[in-house]
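Table S2 (continued). Query chain:
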Amino acid sequence: MQSSTDSVSALLSYTQDPALQKIGFKILNGERLQEAEGVTLFEKGSLSWLGALANFVREKKHGNITYFNRNFHIEPTNVCVFNCSFCSYSRGYAHREEGWELSIEQMMHIVKSYDGKPVTEVHIVGGVHPKMNMEFFLELLRSIKSHRPDLHIKAFTPVELDYMFRKAKLTVQEGMQMAHEAGLDSLPGGGAEIFHPEIRKQICDDKVDAEGWLTIHRTAHQLGMHSNATLLYGHIEAYHHRIDHMERLRQLQDETGGFNTFIPLKFRNKDNDMQHIPESSIIEDMRMYAVSRLYLDNFPHIKAYWPMLGRQQAQLTLSFGVNDMDGTIDDSTKIYSMAGSEEQSPSMSTSDLVQLIRSAGRTPIERGTLYNVVKDYSTVALESIEA
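Corresponding output:
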């Protein structure tokens, strides 16, 4: 029986392109790719070739394990002072009657609805509402921690945090320290979009720039917090913009080691200012995941956000470098359903996720936010799994 390395080596011999052969052998030998080589993977690599390499790296890092967690989302508001052309979710402050604004009491009601349930994480992101300021969210963090100290709070993109800090006249260091002390445990990866100014100027010019985003994550890492990172793909960007984005993330990860997970996010074109742009194909989606795994050599985990892709396509990513299927989510999240995602009421039970992972031939492991193992579901009977 051939080893995994032998199988991939055999596949590499099928390409006659010298540039791809060189890149392939670098990957097999654990050598870092350069930016031009990342672009070459996108431009020249066949999907089967990329998938085999990405799966090789994935299994070298994690074997057959695929992680998930039990979490729920709170979206405080979809009212936003910013106007991102790709966004189907937010409503401008002048039209806030079309959106929603949750009070602390309403959000705590959501938290309390999970009392007695084995969730480990609450994920809090939303629009940037001028009346939901730093003190408002500090009170929310303290309230959640007071009620349920063991619940990991992953909250607020740098877009939200930058606005809070500037309005409160705080430095990034001061603001992050206050949020951390109030109960903020880690940062999600949102708001990154595309770092390159050529694209950022066209799709989200008025919100925090790439350096601001990276500075907030760097500061979180320096405070001992972990975070995730994202990239919004499949709109007006070129391949070199994607690689530039991943290169900046890779450099910060070299510096701090604070990123847990990279999550490619597919652009959805329903009801936004970019609805004339066709969405990427499944082939392009899998290409994005595979190249992410190959280029981001210092990121331990690559995640498929199944509410955005749909559960079947998310399952397919497990053959293209992905080792994390996100979580049970609950159907409260609207960010992607409002943009026309495959999952209009995104909710999967633990048994649903376990079955999805098993049917792809992988080993389902429930994790905490920081990838501590909560439970191995490889041999647990589906009918005995608690929702």
